[in-house]
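Hypothesis: this fold can be encoded by more than one sequence.
Test: take the structure tokens below, design a sequence, compare later.
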């Protein structure tokens, strides 16, 4: 089980079109001490980003979503939020053609399903990366 005395304090926007996964990711990160906001898709995420009183440190987004893909969302936010890091997640195997198609190889990626510990560890790794 995740320890509640973790030192995460950064702001994270979680974008996932599956409500159950979105809630689970948010709950895990909240227990780790992060300030978590969720969005159910790319358009929703853009509205949240535009209205946010302070910037987000990390965008966690599913790659394949109805409407705007996670890759497209990331591309649309790069100019306005250049310091926000991105962690992609997907239920597709890392070597599947979908990952090649959206060109996320070499970027931060988390394979679904994942454990609470692997999510927390990967988030910390991405936030601490140069």
């Amino acid at each position: 089980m995740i320890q509640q005395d973790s030192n995460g304090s950064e702001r994270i926007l979680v974008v996932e079109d599956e409500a159950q996964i979105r809630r689970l990711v948010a709950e895990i990160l909240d227990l780790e001490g992060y300030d978590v906001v969720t969005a159910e898709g790319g358009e929703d995420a853009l509205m949240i980003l535009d209205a946010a009183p302070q910037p987000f440190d990390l965008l966690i987004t599913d790659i394949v979503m109805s409407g705007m893909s996670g890759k497209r969302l990331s591309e649309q936010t790069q100019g306005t939020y250049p310091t926000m890091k991105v962690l992609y997640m997907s239920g597709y195997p890392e070597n599947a053609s979908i990952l090649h198609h959206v060109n996320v190889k070499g970027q931060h990626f988390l394979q679904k399903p994942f454990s609470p510990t692997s999510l927390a560890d990967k988030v910390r790794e991405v936030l601490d990366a140069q």
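Residues 1-6 have pLDDT under 50 and may be disordered. Helices lie at 19-31, 42-51, 70-78, 97-102, 116-128.
Hypothesis status: open.
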